[in-house]
Write a structure and sequence with these properties.
Helix content is about 30%, strand content about 30%. The protein folds into 3 domains: about 60 residues, PUA domain (Archaeosine Trna-guanine Transglycosylase, Chain: A, domain 4, Roll), CATH 2.30.130.10; about 100 residues, 2-Layer Sandwich (Transcription Regulator spoIIAA); about 190 residues, Vaccinia Virus protein VP39 (Rossmann fold). The strands form 4 sheets. It has a 7-stranded mixed sheet with strand order 16-15-14-17-18-20-19, sandwiched between helices. The protein has a 6-stranded mixed sheet with strand order 2-6-5-4-1-3. A 5-stranded mixed sheet has the order 7-8-9-10-11. It is of the alpha/beta class.
Length: about 400
């Protein structure tokens, strides 16, 4: 008998307002018995229908709702929603690399699908979705006929769902590296070993925007990863220094620079925090500094410490910017909200003794839409600052 989950009084308001997650501590009682990953019906305290979603007793998120009407779970639903998600992207994006499906924002919670030309890379971040990965691959093959479909199953969040960390090819053949073009820049994307699905597609528009700030100047790109910002900056800058602690990432930067014929990128294998301090000791300064670090906080409990981290790293970066130069600073944690991030950067500005102006505030690219009723989907912040 399928599960029926009854919420505590009042807990249905957030769900009926458009959020998808039902937390275990919001539940009054559960009737029926089925296996983890099965479809469960969620009802309010008074019995009103709220929605349906996959249940997992191993997770703090007990149910992820994705059916709110009389629709039936199954292949036809996935075909319909994936096709709609892809069509929405094609109206806005001309490149052949983009996020095709963005989980809750596309009414397919815990499912991520990225397109890299003729190949698709997906993440299944909940038990229910992972159990249906082969059916999802069938849908993707029917809709798009890709040369190959690869699943990145190494995200740590999978362990919270009781899932193993395992990458696998679901269809066709997928090479270690896929060659794409973004903003006119050629890139080799390592979909099997690179971060996330191989590349951070959410920064696409911010990478392109950085070119005008880099024009003719000397640029420092910290936490450069595979060089997305470095390459876009190199298209207009005199010189770029790309810093990352990973030799693997810097190897990708050099390969990608060669693909584009860029000879104005230097790489430095170092801890970016230490590199910022060392450059100051050396008397170095730059026309444009880019900070795109990994998330400093992955839970609400870490926000206070993360704010101090953002303050310190931005302060050290501001000290390196030439008068009238620019700083691009980013945060990719939804726990670090835009007001909190701006406050941390403002504290750095005060401590620097410099006059700091905000020229632009940007967010994730439109192929990563933020669902206004689910704050977790709004995570990327990018501030373009001028330092006098």
């Amino acid at each position: 008998m399928p599960y029926t989950v009854y919420l505590k009084k009042g807990e249905e308001k957030r769900i009926l307002g458009g959020h998808s997650w039902v937390y275990a501590n919001e539940v009054q009682k559960i009737e029926g018995k089925d296996k983890n990953g099965s479809l469960a019906e969620v009802r309010a305290f008074d019995g009103r229908f709220v929605g349906k979603g996959y249940v997992n007793h191993l997770s703090k998120i007990l149910v992820r709702i994705f059916i709110r009407t009389g629709e039936e779970d199954g292949k036809e639903l996935y075909l319909k929603r994936i096709a709609a998600a892809d069509l929405a992207r094609k109206k806005l994006i001309s490149d052949s690399c983009y996020r095709m499906v963005f989980a809750e924002a596309d009414d397919l919670p815990a499912l991520v699908v990225d397109r890299y030309g003729d190949y698709l890379v997906l993440e299944c971040l909940s038990l229910g979705v992972d159990m249906r990965k082969n059916m999802i691959a069938e849908c993707l093959n029917e809709l798009f006929s890709p040369k190959g479909i690869y699943m990145r199953g190494d995200a740590a969040v999978r362990q919270k769902e009781g899932l193993p960390l395992k990458n696998e090819t679901l269809s066709g053949e997928v090479p270690d590296k896929i060659y794409i073009e973004e903003n006119g820049i050629k890139m080799a994307v390592d979909v099997k070993r690179g971060q996330k699905t191989g590349y951070f597609l959410d920064q696409k528009e911010n990478r392109f925007a950085c070119r005008r700030y880099a024009k003719g100047g000397e640029v420092l790109d910290c936490f450069c990863n595979s060089g997305g910002f470095s390459l876009n900056a190199a298209a207009s800058a005199a010189r770029v220094t790309a810093v990352d602690i990973s030799p693997f990432a810097l190897g990708n930067v050099r390969e990608n620079a060669a693909l584009n014929g860029f000879e104005n990128i230097d790489t430095l294998c170092a801890d970016a925090f230490e590199a910022l301090r060392d450059f100051k000791k050396q008397g170095r300064s730059f026309d444009f500094v880019i900070l795109d670090p990994p998330a400093f906080c992955k839970s609400a409990a870490e926000v206070k410490d993360a704010a101090r981290g953002y303050r310190d790293v931005n302060l050290n970066a501001m000290k390196l910017v030439k008068p009238g130069g620019y700083l691009l600073t980013c945060s990719c944690s939804h726990y670090m909200t835009l007001p909190l991030f701006e406050r941390a950067v403002a504290e750095a500005a005060r401590a620097s003794g410099r006059r700091v102006k905000c020229l632009e505030v940007k967010v994730q690219a439109p192929d990563h839409p933020a669902l206004l009723t689910a704050e977790e989907t709004s995570y990327l912040k990018a501030l373009y600052l001028q330092i006098d």
